[in-house]
Amino acid sequence: MAGPKVFSSGPSRAVIVLCITQVLGWGALFYPPGLTMPHIAAAHGWSLAQALLGFSIGLGVSGLTSPFSCHLVERHGGHYVMAAGALIGALGLLILPLADQYWLYLAGWVLLGIAMACTLYDPAFTALTRIFGASSRRAITLVTFVGGLASTFSWPATQMLIAHGGWRSVYFVFAGVMAFIVAPLYAFALPRNAIYAPPPVAEGAAPVKTAAIIPSIGMPFLLVAAGFAAHAIMQSGTLAHLLTILQRGGIDAGTAVTIGALFGPAQVLTRIADFMSGGRLHPLWLVRIAMALMACAFILLVAAGISPVVATVFALMFGAANGVVTIARGALPLTLFGAVGYGRVVGRIARPAQICQALSPFALAYVIDRWSGQVALELLIGVALLALACFVLLRRPS
Predict the structure, then answer these.
(1) Which of 5-9, 201-205, 243-247 has the highest mean pLDDT?
(2) What mean pLDDT, rounded, does the chain reach?
């Protein structure tokens, strides 16, 4: 009986709290627009692009504020910053169904962008590293494993709420989830004390300034940031347009949705495999293999043509690769740059990735409308190869 008690009351409680809050946070803040945007546009007489602009603004704001929020988590703890972010998210979610003017709708998305920067994976990784230090990889893997189930719960719940109460009910319910479940868990259940502490300064030595422990903008940092930014282009663009591309390729809507649903289980399975292996594979090799698998997935879809079988294999390959890239996003900066100053480092790496994530759906929509889905897939092959090149050029620390 002592084991479960220790696990629930000691620092490992952070893993339980973050597993729950990441599923709920991603489910409330990130996934609903995929189903609610057409309803929002129709309700206000906006174009779909106008409605989607709010989501892109939210992602862009998240990227711009992520370094600041992660630094605050590292300095003050997740129980303050992440709880405040959840309450900001609840306010943003309440604004969306009540906004009768476009500027107010966009303002709601600005708040949601701040909430995403304060509550999702990057601050969660920072909170875990603050608690567990250099040994936080297994905790990060477990949280991403459970977090990968967010779409599995969010999309059915969103569809059910739309069917029974309309699209506005989605945001009212999720606002309640953020305010009355997620925020209290962060505020009262997330461990407050940092287990990890930097080595003491030798007697007579000058104290180390914070800026000195942040890596300079050198080639390793640029390669990591560029590689994960390229991955963000692939992830965001693919999730936004895959079903459309498959349907234009001759696959009926029901089959396309079924194929798309394989993405989540595939990424969860690879995260389980990494967790069960104890993280023995170096995160640099992990991300190299993942980017190579993504490139092969796009090449297969272009070379073999769109069919149900090929699309199924693509979804499994892409999902499996994406599952471990998320782990590498947390583990690779820790390995390369260390635990000290981790929050600011991971936030700075996240900034270009989240800005690319915001722009990718619009850029690929233009490519699809101007040329074709085939051209968009060929473009994504190039992006995948660029990401792979960044991580191949990166060298393991000696």
Answers:
(1) 243-247
(2) 86
Residue 303: count other Cβ atoms within 10 Å of its Cβ: 9
CA angle 359, 362, 367 (to 5 degrees): 120
In the predicted structure, residue 319 carries a pLDDT above the cut 60: yes
Predicted confidence at residue 84, as pLDDT, reads 97
Task: Output b/e per residue, 6-36; b: 16+ Cβ within 10 A.
Answer: eeeeebbbbbbbbbbbbbbbbbbbbbbbbbb
Inter-helix orientation angle 78-98/167-177, to 10°:
160
Does residue 334 contact residue 342 with C-beta atoms inside 8 Å? yes
* pLDDT for residue 205: 46
Query: What whole-number distance in Å separates Cα of residue 188 and Cα of residue 184?
Result: 6
CB atoms within 10 A of CB 365: 18
- Of the candidates 151, 181, 287, 312, the residue with the CA atom closest to the CA atom of residue 227: 287
Other CB atoms closer than 10 Å to residue 65's CB: what's the count?
22
Q: What's the one-letter identity of residue 144?
A: T
Token match 């303050």: residue?
80
Structure tokens at 207: 């104290």
Query: For 64, what's the count of Cα atoms within 13 Å in the CB-facing half-sphere?
Result: 12
Nearest to 325 by CA among 393, 231, 204: 231
Euclidean distance between CA atoms 307 and 6, whole angstroms: 51
